[in-house]
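User: Quick sanity check before I run a bigger batch. Here is a single chain. Can you write out its predicted 3D structure?
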Amino acid sequence: MAATSTDNAPGSVINTPSAPAAIGPYSQGIRSGDLVFLSGQIGLDPETQHLVKGSIADEARQVFRNLNAVAVAAGGSLAHTVKLTLYLTDLGAFGEVNAVMSEFFSAPFPARATVGAAALPRGARVEADAILSLSVGGSTGG
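Assistant: Done. Predicted structure follows.
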């Protein structure tokens, strides 16, 4: 687990090289008790810091891989997700992103909101953030 604590932080800072470095003044995640708050991830390849090429489904897969990497660094996995927020620049891609999500999650699914966004960082088409509860049994796949 690559979690570090900062004296004045409200929780433990989660940081891992297995996910893209933050592209602004924020942490990849913050753990507060059994809750972990994962910052938004776009489809950046953590090794190159460039957006993956391909379809929105390819981007979405990388988004979920990135979220899972931070979740693992916090001592959990996507299986501990209780709330997920998706941001899409094209709500017409809702079905494609849902199909990818089903590769990473299974019933019972986390609570979720999907938000249409005019634009996302680095020209991404999809972004997601999540809240984990490490006290839940983790019944979703990851």
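The two ends are 17 Å apart (CA to CA).

User: Great, the batch can go ahead then.
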